[in-house]
Automatic annotation (TrEMBL):
InterPro entries named among the record's database cross-references: Hydantoinase_B (IPR003692), Oxoprolinase-like (IPR045079)
Molecular function GO terms recorded: 5-oxoprolinase (ATP-hydrolyzing) activity
Gene Ontology biological process terms from the UniProt entry: glutathione metabolic process
GO cellular component: cytosol
Stretches assigned to the Hydantoinase B/oxoprolinase domain: 14-563
Organism the protein comes from: Peribacillus glennii
Name by which UniProt lists this protein: Hydantoinase B/oxoprolinase family protein
Amino acid sequence: MAKTNTEQTSGNLIKAEIIRQQLYNIAQEMGIVMIRTSGDPVISEAVDFSTFIADKNGEIISFSGYMTMHAGPARQSVRHIMATYPEDEILPGDAFICNDPHTTGACHPPDVGIVKPIFYKGELVAWCWAEGHLLDVGGMSPGGFAIAANDAYSEALRFPGIKIVSEGKIIQDVFHLMEANFRLPKHDINNIRCFIAACNTCEKRTIDMIDKYGLEEFNKYVELNKDLTEKAYRQRIAELPKKTYEATEWIEHNGHENNLWPIHCKLTVHEDSLTLDFTGSAPQTDGFVNTTEGTAIGCAVTPIMLVLTPDIPFNEGIFRATNIILPEGTVVNAKMPAPVSSAHMEAGMRITKVVTDLLSRAMMESEDEWIQSHAMAAFHDSWVVGVFSGKDDEGRPTVFLDMNGGGAGGGAQTICDGIDAGAAFTQLSNGLPDIEINELSNPILYLWRQLNINSGGPGKYRGGQGIEFGWIPWGTDGGTELVSTACWQVPSRGAMGGYPGGTSGYWSIKNSNARKLMQEGKLPDFSQLDGEKELLPSKHVLQLAADDVFVQFEGGGGGLGDPLKRDPQAVLRDLYDGYITQEMAEKAYGVIIAENGKVDEQRTKTRRELIRKERVDRAIPPIKKSNVKKQLQFLRTSGEALHVKTDSNGQLFTCCSDCGTVLSDRNEPWEQGAVRINTEVSGALGDYGMFVKGRDHAPYVYLNELACPECGSMLGISTSVND
């Protein structure tokens, strides 16, 4: 095991924890300042921001974690400024503005950050960063998601880490530049001032800390906390199997072309470090789906933070034992002039999905029960974008980014169902805005907001449900609606025999009868609305008139475990609560409801046995069927679907957890001993009443089911793309 600085650093561990927690509280207080001073629902309601503190060298010492993917952009912003400005030009009272993904690593241009150096008695001792989403930053598309962009120049006004405050005095020329380019300058400038206020708060609190402990002690314990995190992280990695795992995810539709772009990742577990190698990912495109290095790093470390090390304080120590390889000129590390205004939504969240899958596979094979129990299915991980722009009834320009787009479902875990309306995995602190706040701030009226039925992936533990909502223009003659969803055709994966979640999309209903129904005292839902109903493309711009209704539905997280193992009473509750339909209860879960509204136990048992038999009957035979028939002894679990057993000589085997059938020698892939069912994914999940948009041309997306050749239990499910 590699030696860390911890072994050479003495210190009081209690004091180290006190200082660590104080720094974390400061980072959290920065967020509270932003919430209280912004006045923007994007900040105060949806919590679309992050804060962090770095040491004088730009290494993370505290991160608020409001949006975990911002860890990468935060580091890159500070380091870019340190590399760009001579030391004698970084002065007390300065602050820098950053939103350029290609230089300062921002997730996309609307994510604007303020970076502030912190000085103590004239010496640079730390940095802080406060970042939030602005409603508009100029460019070709209101709201900043430039579907039609071919390059970064047309996407937005970009700030590559330039001074906005000089020695405590705001540089008004920067604000004048914003006034000339932003569609909502007063609104956005107020947000930037609140980011500056957050950094000023951090500066004051940090100086107070140093006054209390002294600079030498402060630096000593800052370094010790990084060392402690590194040591704990390396010890956690040491409990994983020393092997390599590979998987591929796909970006959909780059704004110009309905194609699929692969993101390939290879996870290698070393003795006490991890390598994530994205070699083999697609070349960068001319559409807005590429990501740059900072965002890719933030999205890649998110599953490490939340799946593998949720109990370990996050700081620079995590990066010391993580090697991330991002080939330049690809969709995961695009170079100028690649457009990137949906970087985190597209390539970024696909990175998070593929790393979540790889980590969970490695964790399932660990001998450590705690690690095994924290493996999980993928979140839906698509922030479903809808931006309405036009003029209100007084002729003022309006841009409405509906933060309900963060209402997709979470992935199931080994102990519970996924989170409903759970945001993206990279931004778990996002909240759903209050309906009335949105209506107060924007010329729209909601007709409904509810859970999206059948959206959670079926499993022993069900994937979380996404939401569905509909609204009509209100107090305006209409306007332009831009839509962009990253998860339309390739669903989010399940785990350990659980199925993928449903995907997201949009409807428009032209010339609807919504106003007529409301005049009659009725609150309309989708089924009651008349008009021209159209399922929209995943990337699209349309005009909405005053009587048109816009509907958005969001997908669910992946399920975990064979759905035939789900407690029938839990299925019944889901049915009565409106989470699933009877069609899904019967076809996916094999649960039959009697006329009295209760579970028919005998018919359910028979139905489940039939489904298992049908799986085996229609499957492709195993690649390599095991002939092992000898008596084996149970050793340990390997996730929900598999057991590890041993013979009298100590040889290990991977077996079905239900019937004990040997699938393979432990040193060989168990998948080769399973039967296979390969089906076009939209049809396969559509049979359960789920939405996944099928592709009308190659390449096509397939659902790959792996089941036990003897009992038919579902062992693993993945997606693949083939011509």
